Amino acid sequence: MNPLDADPVALAPPPQTAQAELEFACDANGATYVHRQRVGYPFHVGRSLKMPGDPPGMPTVYLQSCSGGLFEGDDLRLRIVAGQSAVAHVATAAATVVHSMESRPATQQVELHARANSFLEYLPDPVILFPRAKLASGVRVKMHPGATVILGDAVLLHDPKGGDDLFDWLQSDTLIEDEAGKLLARDRFRIDGLQLTRGLAGITGNWKAQGSLFVVTSAKPPAELVAALRGVPTPAGVYAGVTILPNQSGAWTRILATDAAALKAALFSAWAAVRQTLTGAAPMPRRK
Fold this sequence. Notes:
Number of helices: 4
Helix content: 10-25%
Distance between the termini: 56 Å
Oligomer: single chain
Shape: globular
Mean pLDDT: 91
Order of helices and strands: HEEEEEEEEEEEEEEHEHEEH
Largest sheet: 10 strands, mixed
């Protein structure tokens, strides 16, 4: 049969599905468990762990990569669903290296769905941009009534040869919506390595590491969350700002740091302050 005579639906490209999907639900006693998972290469999901100091019934799940990072042309997709009243912490086992690329970029897309009254934390370790890396990164958050999402991201630069070669470009887009699809907040930017070398004020200045923490919730007034974040001591080597998210949907902080260690400490302190405010208990440091 001539392809031009075929059914247009049959000629349409197949829908893109996530290589990894996790869905959390509550059991009869109120404890959260992994209700459903579908995981393909390059993802691997570790078993559920219970961490001291976490909210009752909260599992911690680590995502691992079997590929050694992101390579040219990769298109990775992850979908996480927190069912009604579920509480879960999802993180990566290590930082994600974005390797050098000749032409095609790598793409990484994450979908977070927080059902009614759920509490979902997604706090991956940083992405590390190697020279000539090209990465388009997107996160889409769907919020239902009473839900809370704590979302983190961080970016580091590294030349494995010990030189000063820089990545090509990074594009980031974080989209937060309510259950009806109404836009609550959006943060997006694109930056290239040459811009960083200029050290422009208002972009990154001389800071080489950066991260963000989004706290999307109606459980506490945004001003209270902002006050908690502003109360975190700012150590040497860190510059940070805090503000209320649009539509009074929560709070947000962006952190600039001189190196990876300073950024990690600052992000953990911000997360601990928010967790203390929302649950009454701060998290314990994670050992990976």
